[in-house]
Structures are given as C-alpha cells and as structure tokens.
User: Fold this.
Amino acid sequence: RRLVTSSLVVTACWILWGLFNASHLRTVVPAFGWGEALRYGVPDGLLWALLTPVPVILARRFPFPTSHPARNAAVHLAAGSAVAILHSLLDTLFNLLLDRVATGEPHVAFADLARKLLVYGFHTNLLLYLVIIGITMYLDRLASLRERERQTAELRSQLTEARLAALRAQLRPHFLFNALHTVGAIIERDRTAGRRVLRQLGELLRASLSRDGDQRIALEREVELCAAYLEIERARFGERLDFTIDVDERASDCAVPTLLLQPLVENSIRHGVERAAEPVEVRISAARRDDRVVVRVADSGPGLDGRDGDAASGRPAGVGIGIASVRERLRAHYGDDHRCEISSPPGFTVTVEVPYVRAGSFVIAREDPSAPEERRRA
Assistant:
C-alpha cells in the first residue's frame, strides 16, 4: 500500500513538472500553441516517472556520506549522464510515434530530433537526476532518524520498566523481613494471636504480589494494603500504635506507583513506633487539589532527632532504603513532575505530590467483601 501511494505521489509530481515544461515551451517558442507545448512537455515528466526508480536504487546503493566519496560521485555522474541520454532517446521515440499517429509519418529524422533534445535537455536531466539522489538520501536519512528515535524511546521505556521492577524487587524483601519480624515477636507472646496474624500476613502478601505486572495501582487499593499492614503491626505493639486514614474520595481513584506508601509506613513503624516509649500515631492522608494529588504519611514519633543516618550509603537521617526507593520510582514514573518532601520535627512526615491520573483500568478488589468502605480510626 505504501509503495502504491509513493508511486502515485511521484507520478503526480512529474506530471506537474511536465505541465511546467509545457508552459515554459509555450512562453519561449511563440510558434508553439498549447497543443504542441503539451505534446512535448508532458511526456518529459511521464518519462521521468518511469526512470525515477533508477536514481532511487543507486542513491541507496551508493549513498553519501560514505568511506568512498570519489567512487560514489563517479558512479552517480556516469549514471546521471546515462539516464539523461536515455531520457532524450525515449523522448525522441515518443514524439516520433505521436507524429506517426497524427500525420502518418514523422516530420523529422530520429537522429536529428534526438540530437536537438539531447542538447536542449541534457544538463536539465542530469540536474534532475542529482536532485532525485539528494531527495532520496534526505528521506532515507529522515526515516533512519525516526526509526532510531523510536528504538531509543522503546529502549528507554524498557530501561524504566527494568528499573521499576528492580526497585520493587528491592522493596518486597524489605517489607517481608519487617513483617516476619513482627509475626515472630507476636508468636513469642501468644501463639494463637501469632497464627492469626500470620494468616493476615499471607493474605496481605498475596494481595500485594498479585499485581506483579502492574506498575501502578489505584490509591484507594494502595491505602487498603497499608491499613492491613498497620493492623498487623498493631497486634504487635498494642496500645503503642494508633493509626488514622483520611483519603479524599476525589483522590481515591488516582493511579499511583505500586508499593508507594508501604515503605513510608514501614519507615514510621521502624523509626517512629519502635523507638518511642509513648504511644505513636501514624496518619495516612490524601487530598486532591485541582489536577494534583497530595499524599502524606506522618507519625508522631521522635522525628529526625531519634533517627540515625546511613553511614555506608551516605544517606541522611530518615532517608533509608524505603524512602530512597520511593524517590527513585517517583522520578522514573513522573520525571520532574512530582514532589517528595520530608519534614521533622514534630514527628516525621513524608509528603508526596503527583499529577492526578484516573486509574480507570484498575479493579479495586477487596479481600473481604464485608469490610466497611471506609476504615475508621483504629
């Protein structure tokens, strides 16, 4: 189909060239009427439509730039001259055939007419050959650049997906080890409660890992997974942990990177609840502001004063694997069109702002259909 379209476009361009030649002949040769001018001018363009594949093929066979510029230039000069001569001979033959059809016999000898057309059109035809060469090389170069851009964009997309997959693979063991530590601590005190929490952990892991191919999830679902994790941690810490969830309904269907909030909640448990002697409240909130969604995970723990930096990685206090991974994933998903800020004291708060994009393709499937639509204050 593309070949047919290209052929039609080339033919149309050469017909226009023939009409241009006819008008030129009508202007410079007063004895020619429009009929004679069209008879000599239009065939010139039609013949070039037939000859165009020759310079196109040679342009791709002997392109520029090249490691053999002199050789390719000589090839095109010789080929251009041969095409120009062939065009004049075919034009002569065509005009003599028209004369024979119109009058019964040609008015001029083949050699005389061929010589006149060759003298008149050789340089123009050679120039047209070179123009076709240049246009072909330009279009091929343009197509090559577009293909390279497409491949680069595809590779960039694959690289981003690989980075996200690596980050998720890094976060999952981090989450799993923390959760297993919680279960181990509960089992030491109460085996029955430990088994119950272990079942809850299994459901939570199944829900979080079931979306392995999805890089984004509805905010409401992400918050539900965090709430399930907080309920498990509350079984461990008892009255030392309290949590509140407040999600604006207008922001609940926003698409966010999977495992966006989970590392932040774990950070609050590890550095807030575990290190505080008094009860700590963890707050998850989300609000929509026009075309932006602002999500906060905050705790009332000791804040940065009670958190140690990571000397091995050079991370400042409060910026561990979880928060660093969240920042990298936000950068991979949104580029510079996001905000991730840490504030402390009082407590420790991570604020994330992303564009609102509706997660219409995500199905928010709750593990417990009888669970209330909104979780109350724990």
